[in-house]
Design a protein that fits this description.
mainly beta
């Protein structure tokens, strides 16, 4: 199997480890990344949870998928939805991996969409939204029936990473110009009525110098942008931005630049849940010169399941050409980490994205996403498991592994 963490266009690698202590429930968690960087450790899948559940996706002519870094993947409590470029969204049964149906169809007519990687699932309302153009989305139910075209107000045109939850749409405008500013918005659906907004930045500068897209970073939070202004300062954002997160029926907001995770009420940041202390590795301001970013990290991706938070850290993002050179030479070392709110334990691994498997015969893998019920989601391509099978005693192999073929669909791994 092609390793997902290495299939992206800039060969991004990640990992993280450190230590900590337990805290009171109402205490703000300070995640001391700077200290953890001084004592890096290897990350294991058992750091995410003890229960590992494998779900082989059924392999049929009509259900073939690759599940690489640019694929869309959503796991709910009942279904697994997989989207790939130029293909309809596929729906599999979560408990068995059986292929159930396509959701909608590819096309440009009424009730059709052009691709299924830019898709959001509202697990509470059981609705699926495909971005089709500007601020328009096609809305379907879980059975694949087209419901309506959802149009959000025009100021959503520059939005990134719209998050759908409980028949509401939350969005973050991360690329400002003379018509927009850095602001978060919320809308009541299906009417599209604006119910609140939150200014994240007051700068409204139309003199942007250039915008650099980082394709291939979907695994780590989506299309990443770097924008430089004429005065030499820059800002950044994600198209598929994890600014908004849902966990245990609650909504959270991650501020990319103060690196704090907030509980939300409406669109107001009510209560800080965790603050990431980057120290000498971060601490930069919203607008910083490229020279001020030397040796510092951006934190574009955060996943939170109510008990643990997973985060990624990327160095040198302001220097696109330098990142490419380092990726080609194998000298690019993004990091990721896991913090446990219950125990206060923090682990940061400085080099490499993959988590080790407790069974040494099994291949390493990385966190792909988080299911809507809080399970960590990883992906194995079938051929990797077929290769690993040679080193596993037959009596220890489950039936699905014994029957797996190299060209079968990927296997989903849930960790809880």
């Amino acid at each position: 199997m092609k390793n997902i963490s290495l299939s992206i266009s800039i060969s991004l690698l990640l990992s993280a480890c450190g230590g900590g202590s337990s805290q009171n429930k109402d205490e703000l968690a300070t995640i001391d990344v700077e200290s953890a960087f001084q004592n890096p450790q290897e990350l294991w899948l058992t750091d995410l949870g003890e229960k590992l559940t494998y779900i082989p996706l059924e392999t049929l002519d009509e259900s073939l998928v690759k599940l690489e870094s640019q694929s869309g993947l959503t796991v709910t409590d009942e279904y697994i939805f997989v989207g790939e470029l130029g293909r309809p969204l596929l729906c599999f049964d979560r408990s068995t991996g059986k292929f159930l149906r396509n959701i909608g169809r590819i096309g440009q007519g009424p009730g059709e969409y052009t691709g299924s990687t830019d898709v959001q699932v509202d697990a509470e309302a059981k609705r699926i939204y495909f971005a089709i153009k500007g601020s328009q989305y096609q809305c379907y139910d879980y059975e694949g029936n087209f419901l309506h075209t959802q149009t959000l107000p025009p100021n959503n045109f520059y939005m990134g990473g719209t998050h759908f939850a409980d028949n509401k749409a939350y969005a973050y405008c991360n690329v400002s110009n003379n018509a927009t500013t850095h602001r978060a918005y919320a809308y009541q659906l299906p009417e599209g009525i604006s119910i609140d907004s939150l200014a994240l930045d007051e700068r409204n500068d139309s003199k942007q110098k250039f915008l650099m897209p980082f394709r291939g970073t979907e695994t780590f939070g989506g299309m990443f942008f770097m924008q430089e202004y004429e005065d030499g300062t820059w800002t950044s954002g994600n198209r598929k931005n994890n600014t908004y997160l849902s966990a245990n029926g609650k909504l959270y907001h991650k501020d990319l630049f103060c690196d704090t995770l907030f509980q939300m009420k409406g669109l107001h940041r009510e209560k800080p849940t965790a603050a990431f202390h980057l120290g000498s590795y971060g601490g930069y301001k919203r607008y910083e010169t490229s020279g001020g970013m030397e040796g510092k990290y951006l934190m574009p991706h955060v996943l939170y399941n109510g008990e643990q938070v997973y985060f990624t850290l990327f160095p040198g993002v302001y220097d696109l050409q330098g990142m490419r050179r380092k990726a080609q030479s194998g000298d690019l070392h993004p990091s990721c980490g896991i913090y446990n709110f219950r125990t206060g334990e923090l682990k940061v691994q400085k080099k490499g994205l993959n988590f080790k498997h407790p069974d040494e015969a099994m291949p390493e893998t990385c966190v792909y996403t988080l299911s809507t019920d809080g399970s960590w989601v990883a992906v194995y391509q079938a051929y990797m498991l077929v290769e690993a099978r040679e080193n596993i005693p037959v009596e220890k192999q489950p039936e699905w592994l014994k029957n797996l073929k190299e060209d079968d669909n990927p296997v989903i791994l849930l960790i809880r």
